[in-house]
Amino acid sequence: MKQDPEMMAADTPQAAFANQVSYCRANDAPITAAVVGALAAALDRSTETGRHVLDWQGPALADALPLRDGIQRRSGRADGPLAWLSLEADRSLLGHALTARYWPGGEDPRLLATAHAYGAWMEWRG
User: Fold this and answer.
1) Residue 117 CA to chain centroid, in angstroms?
2) Nearest alpha-carbon partner for 87 in 97, 78, 100
3) pLDDT for 80-110, tens place per residue?
4) Is this model's pTM higher than 0.90 or not?
5) What is the SS3 string spanning the chain?
């Protein structure tokens, strides 16, 4: 059975990035939308990480969490410096924490800012 190209394109990594950008904009998070859009635009197949993301064979939206785990496991073997930005709820801050992990050496996240859940505002800390 031949698959509809529009259906196949709807769950590509590029579509997942576009979906996240739309979701951020709809939730009044233009900074996060700009960051995600810039990451999507910067990805290419010239690095192992870029090839791994852009050539993803599974359903990109459904695979987002396993992909996140895979990036963390591969980070020690990245083909160059890698930073993982994360915006997660943090009860100790009574809000959300924007953190970065850098590889090599990404054992401990570094707090960059406290933020609105969708990035509508941020208070930079580091």
Assistant:
1) 15
2) 97
3) 667 778 888 888 887 899 888 887 776 788 8
4) no
5) CCCCHHHHHCCCHHHHHHHHHHHHHHCCCHHHHHHHHHHHHHCCCCCHHHHHHHCCCCCCCCCHHHHHHHHHHHHHHCCCCEEEEEEEEEHHHCEEEEEEEEECCCCCCEEEEEECCCCCCEEECC
Dist CA 111 CA 113 (whole Å): 6
> In this structure, what token pair is assigned to residue 22?
């739309």
pLDDT digits (tens, 9 = 90+) for 48-83: 778 878 888 777 777 665 655 666 566 555 556 677
Residue positions counted in the chain: 126
Which own/partner contact pairs does 89-97 have at CB distance under 8 Å and 24+ positions apart? 89/117, 90/114
